[in-house]
Amino acid sequence: MLEIRTCAYMSKQDMFADLTSQTAALLGAERDPIANAANAAALIFHVLPDLNWAGFYILRGGELVLGPFQGKPACVRIPAGRGVCGAAVAQKEAILVEDVHAFPGHIACDAASRSELVVPLLRSGIPVGVIDLDSPVIGRFDADDRIGIEALAAVYLAASDPFPA
């Protein structure tokens, strides 16, 4: 059984090191990518402050399809290249948006979201999905968050088989 530790008293770097360690322990020997994404999304949502959505989108046939998440209901399909999630897939790099209303082409799945961090999931340099975090706070995410979620994405990918077709 995993006891979720909140990390409010730690530095952001230490918090992400702890979150990454908790994620590795939670995923353990499980290889199913959907089960692992569900547990990773729940852990992220409950550990990181000021989130209103945390989850995965899976790339299928040129579209990002909603995967496991925590938060309000979300957009089900996002074309690759559209919105913050689609841009992260197209650019094959993380995108941090301080104010989503200033991002051209932002797709508003939840009107309460004000900032967003999207980290692509890359297998051998090929995008297979994204981890998407939303916050109702403008400027919620910074470079430390990007680095921390990129490390968590690497743990997730190493612990999981490829998504089923």
From TrEMBL:
<dbReference type="GO" id="GO:0033745">
    <property type="term" value="F:L-methionine-(R)-S-oxide reductase activity"/>
</dbReference>
<dbReference type="Pfam" id="PF13185">
    <property type="entry name" value="GAF_2"/>
</dbReference>
<dbReference type="InterPro" id="IPR029016">
    <property type="entry name" value="GAF-like_dom_sf"/>
</dbReference>
<dbReference type="InterPro" id="IPR000614">
    <property type="entry name" value="FRMsr_CS"/>
</dbReference>
<dbReference type="GO" id="GO:0005829">
    <property type="term" value="C:cytosol"/>
</dbReference>
<protein>
    <submittedName>
        <fullName>GAF domain-containing protein</fullName>
    </submittedName>
</protein>
<dbReference type="InterPro" id="IPR051330">
    <property type="entry name" value="Phosphatase_reg/MetRdx"/>
</dbReference>
<dbReference type="InterPro" id="IPR003018">
    <property type="entry name" value="GAF"/>
</dbReference>
<comment type="similarity">
    <text>Belongs to the free Met sulfoxide reductase family.</text>
</comment>
<feature type="domain" description="GAF">
    <location>
        <begin position="47"/>
        <end position="154"/>
    </location>
</feature>
